[in-house]
Design goal:
With about 220 residues, this protein is of the alpha+beta class. It is about 55% helix and about 15% strand.
């Protein structure tokens, strides 16, 4: 189309048609966006109606599991005359086909006195670099005293430190480990329940109890 050959009225009519097309396209986009938002609203409300009652049932089931587990643990303590650590427990059926684990997830933490314990261990470590065996022990202790990303000692290293302290019997080493042990302040973050069963082939499977996690714990 040669615009130069169009009359003024024809140009005006063309401009009006173009403008009308733009308005129609803009309106369609607005309508499509509103339809999308309506679909999101409908989807979320529908899923809420499905998931909220499920969440309530899971919470109710969790409370039942922990309540009945406490009764079983009480029975165990009475029967075997022992104190059970209730932080984490695992129960398995006599045929070995079902295993239920429950407890509390924790984050390691220490109070400020942990630094005194570390200082005493490092003071003891100064006496080690006298021979090859001492040098190896020095390296081992340095590895055990390494911090995690949050600047904390690793709780699983404490047991190894304690074992070495008892083996060597050095008062300074023993005192340092005792201080570190007393400074341990773990924080419970959440409860957990894990249920695992074995199929007819002896293969383990986890019963999904979370929408975001289905692996065997």
């Amino acid at each position: 189309m040669d615009l130069d050959k169009l009359s003024a009225s024809e140009l005006a009519e063309l401009e009006a048609r173009i403008e009308a097309k733009k308005r129609a396209e803009k309106q369609k986009r607005e309508d499509d966006i509103n339809a999308y938002k309506d679909s999101v609203d409908e989807f979320v409300r529908k899923m809420y109606g499905i998931l909220q009652p499920l969440s309530d049932k899971l919470a109710e089931a969790k409370n039942l599991v922990f309540s009945e587990a406490n009764a079983i643990i009480d029975m165990k303590e009475s029967l075997y005359d022992t104190k059970v650590d209730r932080h984490s427990n695992t129960f398995t059926t006599s045929d070995g086909k079902l295993t239920l684990s429950l407890g509390y997830r924790t984050v390691d933490g220490w109070d400020d006195t942990v630094e005194s314990g570390i200082s005493k261990i490092k003071e003891y470590m100064k006496t080690l670099a006298k021979d090859e065996a001492g040098a190896k022990m020095y390296e081992l202790l340095m590895e055990l005293l390494k911090r995690d990303k949050k600047g904390n000692l690793k709780a699983n290293a404490l047991l190894t430190l304690e074992q070495h302290a008892q083996r060597f019997g050095d008062p300074l080493f023993l005192e340092g480990v005792a201080i570190i042990k007393a400074a341990y302040r773990p924080t419970e973050t959440s409860q957990f329940i894990s249920l695992i069963y074995k199929d007819e082939h002896g293969v383990k499977h986890s019963v999904p109890l979370s929408l975001s996690r289905m692996d065997i714990e």
